[in-house]
Amino acid sequence: MKILTNKLFLVLALAGMLPGCADLEEKPVGLLAPEALFRTTKDVETAIFGAYGWIASERLYGRQFVSALMLRSDMADIGDRGTPAERQQVNDFNMDDNNNMVNQFWPQWYQVISACNAAIAGAEQLGLNEAEISPLMAEARFIRAFSYFHLVQVFGDVPYIDFFIDDPASVKTISKTPAAEVYTKIIADLEFAKQWLPEKQPSEVRSRASKGSAASYLASVYLTVADYQKAYTEAKYVIDNKDKFGYALEADFQTLFRAPQPNNMKEHIFDVDFLGLQSGAGGANDDIMAPMTGVRGGDAPRSGWSVIVPSMKVFETWDARDYRKEVSFDDSLLVGGKLVPYTEFQNTKRPHIAKYARYAGNSSSEGRYSDHNYAAMRYAEILLIAAEASVEINGPNAEAISYINQIRARARNWAGKQTTFPEDVKAGLNKTDMINLILEERRLELAFEYKRWYDIKRRKLGEVVFKSANSLEPHPNFDPLRDYLMPLPRVELQVNPNLGPQNPGY
């Protein structure tokens, strides 16, 4: 699906006109206009595929962005301390405004957005009827909303650009948009996408957005801004229409992390598709999460770099009877032809994350350039969103409990062998305890899937998870006035002071 044509390169060249191009004056780009680039719906679709392709790149879902999300959470720590300082800064809550991880993924998100804006502008000037062009515009608006949803959660106020840039100088004075307004615009894009996207894309591929994808992200956005009634309504819409959309829980949890995943995996609502042993310019299709999380010194094809490794407490506090723990960790590995426990790993003597390295599919000897389809949203998360929102509205109730128990029932299936753990949730918990149980269920079910930091942030749990006696990964320097946001790149503020002020504490 990653289509690269000469016309697409012209469209994506416009990304350099957005924030993230510090050498704007030194390397001017020629002016382009939508009418010169978009003459058919196929041209619009090409730009949309380009936007998807930017997401499936080393700077975003291939390493930089998702690594930052994992390291920021209480579920993943630095293993090999010889890794570059930029990663240690993110993990240890001592970032500065020149952190190179941020310098890498900030402009990439705006490249995605630029491609979306180009597609929308191109579609609008084709002069076609609403039914012909709205589904394509809806797909571009979904990707734009997806991009801004990540940006606003990580940075707060950000420059919001929703137009085709035909004058590079125009972005030199752009200022930030308040986060609340960004959320409003995200919701508008997702509502349009929900209206116009198809129920299923051709061949039911999950790496292209559908009506269910839009509704699912509406549920997630509303949960993030604590509009629980709307979060419940959207999640319930997805659940009630799951058969129409083709959604269900996979029977075996391991199936979700065994590459190559089918392009129409029923639990995936929206995924980021990497193609095994293929790569392109600018880090395109370069998935490095298997080596980043894999064991350094293991026998090929399982030799990684031990960069992102959970603390021992993350492993030790997870009940061994839970099949999800078995799937999520490698606590032994072949080293020199011998199966050794983690206490004998050559570099970082802790259990490692297995979700990406264990079955990387058609990939390099370290698991790089994998076949993974990373689930940005899966059906299990919709069940948990519905449960959390329902409890916030009505207190503990049977419906919310039933959603959690569907997930726990799947966790009792050890590759076809039925077990008795985790047990079903029983009625009787108060509201606070029920919310805490759901957050814990999210922590385990979605472990290492780039969700935990967002849960910590939206629930303001930082001081609890990083500074309490029960912390899985203690960080006594965590500062809630600073660390719920990352800094805007220093170079962006130098080029355009209107982007100030810098986020607090940086």
UniProtKB/TrEMBL annotation:
Its main location: membrane. It is found in: Cell outer membrane. Residues 89-223 form the SusD-like N-terminal domain. It comes from the Bacteria. GO terms for cellular component: cell outer membrane. Keywords: Cell outer membrane, Membrane, Signal. The keyword Transmembrane helix does not apply. Belongs to the SusD family. InterPro entries: SusD-like_N, SusD_RagB_dom, TPR-like_helical_dom_sf. The lineage of its organism: Bacteria, Pseudomonadati, Bacteroidota, Cytophagia, Cytophagales. This is RagB/SusD family nutrient uptake outer membrane protein. Residues 346-506 form the RagB/SusD domain. Residues 1-22 form the signal peptide.
